[in-house]
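Because discrete structure vocabularies remain unfamiliar, we reproduce here a specimen of the format, pairing a chain with its fold in token form:
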Amino acid sequence: MHRTKYPRTSHLPWSPGFEPDDLHLADLSGFVDREVVVTEKLDGENTTIYADGTCHARSLDSGAHPSRTRVKALAARLLGALPEGTRICGENVYARHSLAYDDLLGHFYGFSVWTGDRCWSWDATVELLHGLGIPTPRVRFRGPFDRRAIRGLKVHAHREEGYVVRWADGFDRDAFPRAVAKWVRPSHVQTDVHWMSQPVVPNGLAPASALWDVRSGVEPDEAGLDAVFGDTRPLLPVELPARGETRLALVVAGRYAADPRGTLLPTL
């Protein structure tokens, strides 16, 4: 299968994290009169997952590293789940880089889906990724491009790397330089340079990550589900589909199958 390196993203004119060798987008005319989506930029490793169950980091020849074990397992679980020629691009946030997370919904967040040289629309991207059990970054803004509103977004630099602006519609790869841009906190690169040479420190997960794991095809974790729902119940044996919302619904239904309906109503 053909491997494709994710394009470099230009900095917005007001991005304080711009470095001399970075790309800078001075002309914002590509965003004018377009609907855009602004998402949180996560501090992780850019990773691409392919329909054949393989993946790589930004470099096409990226080798083995302890921080990549989980995303490789996710890629293997997705074998056969993606249309031919389709790939998922996202952020591997298993290892702590310069920001520490303690409430992630998973250790991989998807932010774009491509078929060949065509990037899917944001809505189609979210529909596919969530159906596969892959969370997407938090949306900070959506609507007609508004430079003042976007520039006014508050970023907590001690726990957020920045944000990314993209067209809500799909676009071809050659439009990427004018369809996607980023804002990065000051001095982010300097604090992130040597993370691969340090011992791996995993980022923390939110209780709800157990639900995303079930959606993605991981075996249900009884203790994790107990933490989500605030009670203790056995997992009933039930035949589950490989992934998706139906898989999660069956697991949740199985937890409460033995309860009389009247005892559930106050909880639901």
About this structure: The first helix runs from residue 69 to 77. The mean pLDDT is 91. DSSP finds nine helices and eleven strands in the chain.
